[in-house]
UniProtKB/TrEMBL annotation:
It comes from the Eukaryota. Keywords: Signal. Transmembrane segments: none annotated. This is Copper-resistance protein. It comes from Parasponia andersonii (Sponia andersonii). Residues 33-83 form the Plastocyanin-like domain.
Length: 83
């Protein structure tokens, strides 16, 4: 009885692992870092933005996915991306 129960748990675990591996995707995004002039409190200010928006775009992935992010720095400044 204990042996068949262990085999059942093992089979369920392997099936769950196979399903999660089969549903994993490669999600790819490109971020273009550039300067953006914004009007804030009646004055213009130059800020660094990603894909022309502030805040930058939302990146959505699921557990098990592989995320590939291409970053193109088109700003005159060195940048650092923090996740």
């Amino acid at each position: 009885m204990a042996k068949s129960l262990s085999a059942l748990f093992l089979a369920c675990g392997l099936a769950l692992l196979a399903f999660s591996m089969a549903s994993a995707a490669v999600v790819e995004h490109s971020l273009y870092i550039q300067n953006l002039t914004v009007n804030h409190l009646c004055g213009e200010q130059v800020v660094t933005s990603a894909n022309g928006s502030l805040p930058g775009p939302t990146i959505s992935v699921h557990e098990g996915d592989t995320l590939v992010v291409h970053v193109f720095n088109q700003s005159p400044y060195n940048i650092s991306i923090h996740w």
